[in-house]
Amino acid sequence: MLLTSAVALGDEAQLKQWEKMDRCSNAAFIAVKILEESADTSKQALALHGAVEGLKTNTKLKEATPTGNEVIGAYNFALRISYEMPRPFAKREHDWLIAQAATACTLWVPSVGAQ
Question: Whole-prediction pTM value?
Fold first, then answer.
């Protein structure tokens, strides 16, 4: 019985980690799209706010819907590392930036709970 409980807890923890990775991947994709749309940080701020507000009512992503903190964290990280990158990003840089922002979100943005 104890072994079964340990396996169930391990599965639950793994599931939560996968859900966070999905949310952070989506957050990073949103963040990079915002960065690609404009180099103007005031326009980026408006787009970021709109994205966070829009996610509050989005039901299509279900458990993969990123939290506002995850989107903002991914955006801040992507903004820092893309500072001198020419826009629009080339395909390789676009994908690399999403991967970096998703990783940073997964590692450094606290899990407060999905919206």
Answer: 0.85
Tokens of 36: 């690609």
Q: Is 115 inside a domain boundary?
A: no
Question: Per-residue confidence at 79, pLDDT binned at 50, 70, 90?
Answer: very high
Domain of residue 47: give its range.
Answer: 2-108
CA dihedral sign, ordered 54, 34, 90, 96: negative
Number of domains in the chain: 1
CB 26 within 8 A of CB 101: no
Q: Is residue 113 part of a domain?
A: no
Phi-psi region of 40 (alpha: psi -120 to 50; beta: other; left: phi over 0): beta
